[in-house]
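Issue 218. Parser rejects a valid record. Input:
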Amino acid sequence: MKHADSQSPDRQSPVSFVANVARLPQKGLPVLIDADAAQRAALAGEHELLSVENYRAELLVAPWKRNGVKVSGRVEADITQACIVTLDPIEAHIDEAVDALFLPEQSKLGRQGFEGGGEIMLDAEGPDSPETFSGNSIDVGALAEQFFGLAIDPYPRKQGVSMEAADDAGTAESEFQQKLRSLLGKS
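Output the parser choked on:
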């Protein structure tokens, strides 16, 4: 299962960071991504933002179970979006936890998914079911960017601006968005 990602899967993330997971230290491999101006401009373009003032991902890539990989950490960013009603710039801060599990494609658990006898107990608050990877590397930068993308408010509104100024389709979408947020537990 891939995270909600509108881009094509072969697209290179502007903040790509490929971690070699063949020989991870037991305590994990720390990864820090601090986007430079060119990377921030590319992120703004990818996610239809006016600008990305700063973007920083601090991740730990650690061994999980026998041959899986757990990626955890945070992605933080300061972004500027256009209000969907007035198009005025709105500043927003993103601080999103990154939590994901990966299993090698050839792994039995990876192949069976979780129908095969429920060998793994997943924590409801924890990561989604594992994704698979091939070879010895995982692009943890692209993973962090996915979490960043999911944290961006798709309907930014300037404080005090009501949706009545927008058309009805916008209102319907924002109600749908609110339901989605409540289902995902993001307020």
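Fixed in the parser; the record now loads. The radius of gyration is 18 Å.
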